[in-house]
């Protein structure tokens, strides 16, 4: 079973890497569906769609992991991730690509809480630190490998190859986890394959592939070309091939859903899962995600439409709170987060995410602003110094969790991160040319890494094992929401500093006497941009410091380690 755990950790890392791969491949993906780089705002759903799938339904998936078992959710998550990759790879327009990205997020998000809960099921509380640290390290390693994988694939193939690779890896990991997970259990009676369902699935797949790749010989043929003529409008879905894809898929789902085993599982979910509560919570989270993911930081923290998203999310949250008081068995059981380290872990995760995103986004921006100009690769290599240190810190934090209080480790780590951001807020235009900048970046990465295992260990140690999938899903949700809110708020504050600094600049003609833009005036503009990054780093330092204080205070008493004889006597 522990082999399954490490396969699950690899799956989590691969899903994490996909996020960074997409950022690198985004211009090519936009071109693939007919969007120019000037239409970047129209491509925003490629990111927000993934986040919706990753975050909005995560509590429901965590609850399903507790109900059905961690292995089925792991396998199901990988299958859904592979399916989303398949849709994305063969997308012909933006709508189809957004749907594919949504399923990628849905599958990738399911892997994290199921893997953390699997650690809790395999190890006692006082021995979880090391495996949690290793799992966190492997997950964060995905952020290091993502840009490298993307760069290699894009150097030798089209962007679609990235998602076809996801498809292959997802299927291989799903099969491996399923087989290893069943190796230690009694043999199940063999099930007769449903040939009709398989044929329907094959028909839907072939029709979709032909619709996506549009073979020239078929499209230009007088007879077969009719398969690509829409019955109405111009959408591919209303062509004969599109309609066959839709009908065959629905027929497959219906035929598959009528199987006795599937009906039993669906019936159990309907009876034991609070679907109304899950829906209200998903709408509330979706409102927050869309409000901040669609924002233009140059204008406001969230967009005009974002206000309505927040209103809808707020109403859904009020409905959810009211529902919790009346439901007999709500999606979030009463008392699930009763202990301080449990809800404290969720709150700490929010501020960790808000601080972390500043490093992920603004360190490369600072590098491009000051010394690397338009070289995205060189700017990314600067961030690599931070990202490599992060998984190292996660492993160290896991080992320390077995010996020291969780709050001390997490608080110390976030204090290191805060100090690193304070030093970044003092960088000048030549700072990255100095070795001291590397020390700062490594310190920040180590600090964030140190906090990962103690926070996860605390929530696992202070919640019931029957709810570990659900409770750990909230730490993931909090971290992602923190990243969204953090990047929107900090970028808005940074841009205000930039505009204020730019307003104080002398006129161009007073600096550049020869006419046109001169080097001295460019240096002044760079100084204004540095003022923007200083504001962002200072805000991140505050977020990291808040996380440090909260960790020391709220994780106090979390039983994440074996007490020494002296501590045992003192506790008694």
From TrEMBL:
The keyword Transmembrane helix applies. SUPFAM superfamilies: MFS general substrate transporter (SSF103473). Residues 4-559 form the Major facilitator superfamily (MFS) profile domain. It is a multi-pass membrane protein. It holds the Pfam family MFS_1. It is found in: Cell inner membrane. GO terms for molecular function: transmembrane transporter activity. PANTHER family: MAJOR FACILITATOR SUPERFAMILY, VACUOLAR BASIC AMINO ACID TRANSPORTER 4. GO terms for cellular component: plasma membrane. Keywords: Membrane, Transmembrane, Transmembrane helix, Transport. This is MFS transporter.
């Amino acid at each position: 079973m522990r082999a399954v755990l490490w396969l699950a950790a690899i799956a989590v890392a691969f899903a994490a890497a996909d996020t960074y791969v997409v950022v690198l491949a985004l211009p090519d993906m936009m071109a693939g569906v007919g969007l120019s780089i000037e239409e970047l705002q129209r491509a925003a759903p490629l990111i927000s769609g993934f986040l919706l799938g990753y975050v909005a339904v995560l509590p429901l998936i965590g609850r399903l992991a507790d109900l059905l078992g961690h292995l089925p959710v792991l396998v199901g998550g990988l299958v859904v991730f592979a399916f989303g990759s398949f849709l994305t790879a063969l997308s012909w327009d933006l709508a189809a690509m957004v749907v594919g990205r949504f399923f990628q997020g849905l599958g990738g998000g399911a892997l994290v809480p199921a893997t953390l809960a699997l650690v809790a099921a395999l190890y006692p509380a006082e021995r979880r630190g090391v495996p949690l640290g290793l799992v966190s390290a492997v997950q964060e390693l995905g952020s290091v490998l993502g840009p490298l994988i993307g760069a290699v694939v894009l150097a030798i193939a089209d962007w679609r190859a990235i998602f076809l690779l996801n498809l292959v890896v997802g299927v291989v990991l799903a099969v491996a986890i399923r087989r290893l997970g069943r190796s230690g259990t009694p043999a199940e009676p063999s099930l007769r394959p449903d040939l009709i369902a398989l044929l329907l699935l094959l028909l839907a797949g072939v029709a979709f592939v032909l619709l996506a790749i549009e073979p020239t010989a078929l499209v230009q043929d007088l007879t077969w070309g009719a398969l690509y003529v829409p019955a109405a409008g111009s959408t591919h879905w209303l062509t004969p091939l599109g309609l066959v894809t839709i009908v065959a898929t629905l027929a497959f789902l219906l035929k598959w859903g009528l199987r006795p085993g599937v009906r039993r599982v669906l019936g159990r979910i309907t009876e034991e899962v609070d679907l109304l509560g899950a829906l209200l919570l998903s709408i509330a989270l979706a409102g927050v995600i869309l409000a901040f993911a669609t924002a233009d930081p140059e204008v406001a923290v969230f967009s005009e439409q974002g206000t309505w998203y927040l209103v809808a999310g707020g109403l859904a949250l009020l409905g959810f709170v009211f529902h919790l008081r009346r439901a007999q068995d709500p999606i979030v059981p009463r008392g699930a987060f009763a202990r301080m380290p449990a809800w404290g872990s969720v709150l700490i995760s929010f501020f960790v995410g808000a601080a972390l995103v500043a490093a992920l986004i603004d360190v490369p921006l600072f590098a491009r602003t000051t010394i690397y100009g338009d070289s995205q690769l060189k700017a990314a290599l600067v961030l690599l110094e931070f990202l490599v240190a992060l998984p190292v810190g996660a492993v160290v934090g896991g080992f320390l969790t077995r010996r020291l209080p969780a709050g001390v480790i997490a608080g110390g780590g976030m204090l290191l991160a805060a100090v690193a951001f304070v030093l970044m807020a003092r960088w000048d235009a030549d700072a990255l040319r100095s070795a001291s900048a590397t020390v700062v970046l490594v310190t920040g990465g180590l600090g964030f890494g140190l906090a990962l295992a103690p926070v996860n260990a605390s929530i696992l140690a202070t919640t019931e094992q029957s709810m570990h999938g659900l409770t750990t899903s909230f730490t993931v949700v909090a971290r992602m929401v923190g990243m969204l809110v953090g990047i929107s708020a900090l970028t808005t504050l940074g841009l205000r500093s930039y505009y204020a600094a730019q307003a104080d600049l002398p006129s161009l003609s007073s600096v550049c006497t020869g006419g046109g833009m001169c080097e001295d005036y460019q240096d002044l503009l760079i100084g204004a941009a540095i003022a923007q990054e200083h504001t962002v780093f200072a805000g991140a330092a505050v977020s990291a410091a808040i996380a440090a204080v909260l960790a020391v205070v709220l994780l106090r008493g979390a039983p994440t380690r074996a007490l020494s004889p002296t501590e045992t006597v003192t506790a008694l």
